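Internal tracking record. Fields below are filled automatically when a chain is submitted to the structure queue. Please do not edit lines marked as system-generated. If the sequence contains nonstandard residues, flag them in the REMARKS field before resubmitting.
Queue: standard
Priority: normal
Entity type: single polypeptide chain
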Amino acid sequence: MAALRIHLRFVLGMLVALCCAAGIARAEDVSAFYTGRTMEMVVGYPPGGSNDLYARLVAAHIGKHIPGHPRIIVQNMPGAGSLVAANHLYNNSAKDGSILGAVSQGIPLQARLGHPQARYDPSKFNWIGRIAPSSNGTMVWHTSKAKSIEDAFQNEITLGGTGAGSTVALYPSVMNEILKTKFKIIMGYKGSPEAMLAMQRGEVEGHSTTWEVVKAVNPTWLKEGKIRILVQHGLTRNPELPDVPTSVELTKNKEDAALMRTIMSAAEIGKSYFTTPGVPAERVVALRRAFDEMIRDPQFIESVAKVNGEIAALTGEDVQKLIGELDTLPPELIERIKSVYKEQ
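SYSTEM-GENERATED OUTPUT FOLLOWS
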């Protein structure tokens, strides 16, 4: 009996040693893969907007936390509200952990709705983390006749738009369908910076974008009265905009409220980042833990503060669950969303 116990202890000891050796080998393999490598951060927007800004901060800081400390360069791939980038990342990019992606928060919902240009499954991307949710809003320039959201129910208000897959177009168009607002979206602008310039020039009255990009690019606009924010697009009011109603609050019945909450929940995905499908599990784990370390890095925190940004992070595992919840939506709710979403 004593001999059996000694034998079992020996076997267990060997198993523990083998597991430890395998873990060390995997860590060494990850470090060897990234050492001397140049990674890409593919951004589904032109330079200058908040998504591009945050993605560049991630590219500048996450590399030192990835084993092997790779260099990361940014490649802008705008088009169709990030659909071009999402399709490329899913179908054409390397599946080895050398590519990171930053696309519109509306991209996962677009796929679930069966958008004809969506050739990707968002749940198969390997999500590595979220910096913060996005606080979206629709604003008008001070020369517009619109003083509050009530005016949008009475009079047409022109907004500069980018692509149909973008929340820039999605949120106002959904408000038109559900709440019967009269936003007219003028498509074709390359990004929020260009659309905001059009707003300043009087080509359009306003624009829908994130509060982060307004603060980063034009932090004094609201204080100086240059813009009026008519409505927020999210589940709750941003603490910095306590007097601006949300589109969910403006609904008139429970069915419309449930519909609007589902659509506006994209704000929770916010500034999230992923790598491509099919990446070896140990590299996905390494990227996720590097993201977590970056979020706590004082230099990264300082960089975000310099652009008046926000950190309210989620781990990659939590973002993956959040994306997966779209697959559990009742079919009847999905059909209702499809019926109110109109391509611009």
